[in-house]
């Protein structure tokens, strides 16, 4: 089904519910929501500009010109953290974005998956430990990853081995939303075919993506969610340039044969994706992470390893505390 | 000298050799072999089909979910004969599906380098036969189109590894095939970085400077080197633009005409490969890459023989397998032995 321009109507904004109160998370109107996103994808697919365009300002500055000497050296994958405060339709979001430059850029990339898994699990472990304390830290900041945005290369064919492995390995720990980076290299027909092929691969390999329709209780929302899911994977084109025309400030990418407006829903799915990430589904993504993904992890961990209870002080986080509490850290 | 040279008795007429050679050439036709190296989805098959204006090869990219993901690089040659104004070319396009497509790409270049060297080896074998063909079948690779990833900031580690090896055995032409997702500024910056990196790592791509170059050649080659890597867009589709039919790509925000020089370097690449440097590509393969291969092979054989002779003289180990029939001392047994490094 060829994607037509999405109609983002007002009923979507009514879906934005406040997150369910959690006895664990300390919530403050002033502080806003805590939201953690991870960006994963090979270099050259637009992760950095995506973040800047999403936040409407330069969060990650352009990297310095690479030294020709290091062209043959693959940097190991690293985790770069950026803190951004956004205000979206009256709600303040305290967002942490973790970029992962180096993913998939080396000759042998098989280690990348384990590194990502370890990182995500480490955030779960921190919460597990914190939860088990006798006296919990009121100011504890939750670092669990709520969304992983995965950038797919626009080959026009279907998923590559790297893509399949990543989603397979990480889908049970984090909500994965696939996007097509540099989608402006595909024509309208090519994009439609590519999306179809990708979704067929997702079905065939049973790859665990974030299911927009996981909550089936609200039938109206379900209908909208099904429509949203039809756009998966989301085509993304991002840029650093802002142009002033008669309609105001417009974000564009200019080519000799025309210009693409990033926010035009008929030309790419960026606007829709931004709405999903920061508006309509932010609560869902957080809730699903806490109520399902984390809980599954916790259950598995406790059945296997054993986090026990014990005496001890609460506020300081030090090894002595963990020992007293009987927590087994790997 | 008089105005019409054909009228004087002093006119010898050996200048007609060019026409004589042309007639011979037309009769015989020639071989042209191109290998495409790049990960799947880079636009390799579309580009080569666009350059030759014929559907020569199908894309080998994985489309259906049931298609298995390739575990290694495969070598997939397709041969066709094209004709233009009486000139026939036997064109072989070698695709390399699976290259750089896995999570672990260590060694993915080995089948490619091996294939190129094997063609040199096959030619050497035919050349060394005591009774050889009048015209030796030439399967040697004359041009390697190396596809770079648009959007990367420069060469990737894999590119550096592979380009170093490829440039030692064949003529390499670096290309950005799907350059329609790069703005002009991005392209310019990318080209500049690639050139810096190639220079730093001493990777020498075609065209090579030569002492025999005329001033005209030097100017032309300089302008080609400016363009490298060629930022091209390929298309097998014909679309309508302002009432005209052109080969292009239709995006929601504009139409790309692949023959428009402000849109892409396609015309420059095509002219370079086929209209100005085609015979160079063939000749340089023979004179430079093949000769290098031949020299090193024959040296190795000579050394091997010396070792065998020394071993036999000391009455030591039995000689290495060179039980080739007397007429063809360079039979395959010995030939292919030294040739397994990539």
Automatic annotation (TrEMBL), chain A:
Against CDD domains, the record matches this protein to: CDC_Septin
Any Gene Ontology CC annotation? cell cortex
Molecular function via GO: GTP binding
Q: Does the keyword GTP-binding apply?
A: yes
Compositional bias per record (Polar residues), positions renumbered to this chain: 1-16
Kindly state which keywords UniProt assigns to this record, in alphabetical order: Cell cycle, Cell division, GTP-binding, Nucleotide-binding
| Septin-type G domain ranges (all copies) | 31-304
InterPro entries the record matches = G_SEPTIN_dom (IPR030379), P-loop_NTPase (IPR027417), Septin (IPR016491)
Q: Which GO terms describe its biological process?
A: cell division
SUPFAM superfamilies per the UniProt record, alphabetical:
P-loop containing nucleoside triphosphate hydrolases
Acidic residues bias (residue ranges): 310-324
Write out the ranges of the annotated region (Disordered): 1-27, 305-330
Q: Which family does it belong to?
A: Belongs to the TRAFAC class TrmE-Era-EngA-EngB-Septin-like GTPase superfamily. Septin GTPase family.
Protein name, per record:
Cell division control protein 11
UniProtKB/TrEMBL annotation, chain B:
Molecular function terms in GO for this entry? Answer: GTP binding
- One Pfam short name: Septin
Q: Name one GO cellular component term.
A: cleavage apparatus septin structure
Q: Where is this region: Disordered?
A: 309-342
Origin species, per record, is Coemansia interrupta
The gene coding this protein = CDC10
Residues annotated as domain Septin-type G? 28-300
* Gene3D superfamilies, per database record: P-loop containing nucleotide triphosphate hydrolases
The UniProt entry's coiled-coil ranges are: none
UniProtKB keywords: Cell cycle, Cell division, GTP-binding, Nucleotide-binding
Recorded hits in InterPro entries, A to Z, give: G_SEPTIN_dom, P-loop_NTPase, Septin
Give the domain of life: Eukaryota
Q: Which PANTHER family match?
A: SEPTIN
The record's similarity note reads: Belongs to the TRAFAC class TrmE-Era-EngA-EngB-Septin-like GTPase superfamily. Septin GTPase family.
- BP GO annotations: cell division; septin ring assembly; sporulation
Stated name of the protein: Cell division control protein
Biased-composition ranges, Pro residues, are 318-328
């Amino acid at each position: 089904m060829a994607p037509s321009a999405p109609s983002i109507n007002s009923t979507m904004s009514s879906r934005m519910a406040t997150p369910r109160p959690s006895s664990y998370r300390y919530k403050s109107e002033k502080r806003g929501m805590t939201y953690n996103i991870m960006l994963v994808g090979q270099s050259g697919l637009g992760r950095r500009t995506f973040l800047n365009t999403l936040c409407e300002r330069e969060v990650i500055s352009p990297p310095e010109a690479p030294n020709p000497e290091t062209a043959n050296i693959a940097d190991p994958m690293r985790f770069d953290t950026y803190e951004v405060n956004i205000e979206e339709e009256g709600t303040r979001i305290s967002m942490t974005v973790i970029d992962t430059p180096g993913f998939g850029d080396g000759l042998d990339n098989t280690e990348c998956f384990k590194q990502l898994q370890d990182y995500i699990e480490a955030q779960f472990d921190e919460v597990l430990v914190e939860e088990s304390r006798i006296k919990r830290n009121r100011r504890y900041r939750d670092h669990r990853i709520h969304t992983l945005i995965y950038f797919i290369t626009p080959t026009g064919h279907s998923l590559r081995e790297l893509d399949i492995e990543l989603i397979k390995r990480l889908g049970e720990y984090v909500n994965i939303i696939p996007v097509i980076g540099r989608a402006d290299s595909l024509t309208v027909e090519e994009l439609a075919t590519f999306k179809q092929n990708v979704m067929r691969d997702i079905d065939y390999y049973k790859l665990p993506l974030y299911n927009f329709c996981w909550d089936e209780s609200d039938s109206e929302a379900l209908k909208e969610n099904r429509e949203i899911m039809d756009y998966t994977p989301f085509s993304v084109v991002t840029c650093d340039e802002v142009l002033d025309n008669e309609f105001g400030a417009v974000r564009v990418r200019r080519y000799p044969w025309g210009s693409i407006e990033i926010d035009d829903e008929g030309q790419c799915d960026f606007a829709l994706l931004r709405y999903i990430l920061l508006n309509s589904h932010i609560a869902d993504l957080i809730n699903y992470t806490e109520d399902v993904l984390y809980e599954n992890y916790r259950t598995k961990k406790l059945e296997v390893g054993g986090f026990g209870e014990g005496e001890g002080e609460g506020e300081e986080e030090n090894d002595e505390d963990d020992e007293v509490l009987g927590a087994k850290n790997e | 000298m008089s105005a019409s040279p054909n009228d004087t008795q002093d006119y010898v007429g050996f200048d007609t050799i060019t026409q004589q050679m042309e007639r011979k050439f037309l009769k015989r036709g020639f071989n042209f072999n191109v290998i495409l190296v790049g990960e799947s989805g880079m636009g390799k098959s579309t580009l080569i089909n666009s350059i030759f204006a014929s559907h020569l090869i199908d894309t080998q990219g994985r489309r259906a979910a049931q298609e298995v993901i390739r575990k290694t690089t495969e070598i997939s040659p397709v041969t066709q004969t094209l004709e233009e104004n009486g000139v026939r070319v036997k064109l072989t396009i070698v695709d390399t599906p699976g290259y750089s497509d896995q999570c672990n790409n260590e060694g993915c270049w080995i089948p490619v380098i091996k294939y190129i060297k094997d063609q040199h080896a096959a030619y050497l074998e035919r050349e060394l036969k005591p009774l050889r063909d009048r015209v030796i079948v030439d399967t040697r690779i004359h041009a390697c189109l190396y596809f770079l990833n648009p959007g990367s900031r420069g060469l990737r580690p894999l590119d550096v590894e592979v380009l170093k090896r490829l440039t030692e055995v064949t003529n390499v032409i670096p290309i950005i095939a799907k350059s329609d997702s790069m703005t002009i500024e991005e392209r310019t910056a990318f080209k500049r970085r690639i050139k810096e990196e190639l220079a730093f790592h001493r990777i020498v791509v075609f065209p090579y400077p030569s002492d025999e170059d005329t001033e005209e050649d030097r100017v032309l080659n300089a302008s080609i080197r400016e363009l490298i890597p060629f930022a091209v867009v390929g298309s097998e589709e014909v679309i309508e633009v302002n009432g005209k039919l052109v080969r292009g790509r239709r995006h929601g925000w504009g139409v790309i005409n692949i023959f428009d020089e402000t849109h892409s370097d396609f015309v420059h690449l095509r002219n370079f490969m086929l209209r100005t440097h085609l015979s160079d590509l063939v000749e340089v393969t023979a004179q430079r890459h093949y000769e290098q291969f031949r020299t090193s092979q024959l040296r190795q054989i000579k050394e091997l023989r010396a070792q065998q002779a020394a071993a036999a003289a000391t009455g030591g180990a039995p000689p290495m397998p060179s039980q080739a029939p007397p007429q063809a001392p360079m039979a395959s047994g010995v030939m292919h032995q030294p040739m397994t490094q990539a």
